[in-house]
Amino acid sequence: MNEDLKIPKLPLRERFTAFGATLLLFLILILISLPALEGAGRDLDYAANLRRFVGQFFPPDFSVAGQLLRAIGETVQIAVMATAFAVVLALPLAVAGAQNIAPRWLNLLTRMILNAVRTLPSLIWALLAVAVVGANSLAGIIGLTFYSLGYLGKFFSDAFESVDTEIADGLRQTGADRIQAFQYGLLPQVKPLILSHALWMLEYNIRSAAIIGYVGAGGIGLLLHTFQEFGQWRKFCTVLIFILALVTLLDFFGEWLRGKLMKRRS
Q: For the chain, how long is the longest CA-to-CA vector?
């Protein structure tokens, strides 16, 4: 082999990149976390327990299909309304949180608000909403709206920071006001990303709306909780099948729509 073609060996300091440091830290965390695998510490037959439990799920009881379809309809309604409210509220927060648009003090304040909103999971937001408005679908909408706001505000803000502001600046120099510069200079660039993030949030909210019923926030999760409480596992299995079908259809639709949006963007 020609000596000139040999790859030179870099010093250890240069080979130890940020990726290597992150990987090493992750491996150390894995070693530290190994005690979590101990479980209850009792000698249990996990395979037999699993077979016995799963055996109660079959055959599924489809006698509740009509009830499930109505609950799925309510679940989708909760997710759609929560996503719509979150998109409307997230857009101004995203502009305030974008470093290339708003002043620094407003960026910091907005990001602190969004971080605080994201701190609570959707189930806790739904629980707080149930405490305020009662156990109904409105609680689910309120809970998922707040939860979605934290993420969409962050996603939209990152989208605005990735755009080229020269077009908006040029419009300002030609006499356009701030709103016109935003509408015609910035918004067209981020519109595909906003639609893509909103669609992802809708998918997530439909999944979440199937769970928040456990705390009384409406939707198909309420049936999950009821069947689980009474040990009606065959009906519980039917609910899971319906949720799987809904999520699968939504996934295919989302993939198709995102492909269309990306083609338009390119």
A: 78
